[in-house]
Amino acid sequence: MNNHxxxxxxxxxxxxxxxxxxxxxxxxxxxDMNVRNQMYVAQDGEQALAFLHRTEPYAEAPRPxxxxxxxxxPKKDGCEVLVEIKADATLRRIPVVIxxxxxxxxxxxxxxxxxxxxxxxxxxxxxxxxTIVKAMHAFWFETVKLxxxxxx
Length: 152
Fold this sequence. Notes:
Largest sheet: 5 strands, parallel
CATH architecture: 3-Layer(aba) Sandwich
Strand content: 15-25%
CATH class: Alpha Beta
Shape: globular
Number of strands: 5
Number of helices: 6
């Protein structure tokens, strides 16, 4: 690992996922990478938006550096959440990675039309899942420059 990354502030990830097995898998993958991330979980679309808008019980929630968003969610689906994120001037700059099981071309087109930053289909193979998590982390937290939170 690069020395400058060891002293960096932990990156904050909001995982919007309703499948407990996928949540656990993501937590394990990030822990195994031995990087300093803080992962927060919202298990449905309404909870994700409450977290992002810092409404009760999330009034003290941090602003995530990256959102990993499943499409198939209860209460509000991932596309509805994405629309609200990208319509909000205080949230739209947070990169949103669609991380879903859907390989449907219509879902891919719709996600990009709604301004998703990228679309990744969850692999079923554990090793491939770890490879994808490592690649996402390397790209979003080691390669690109993300905007920092500021008052608008």
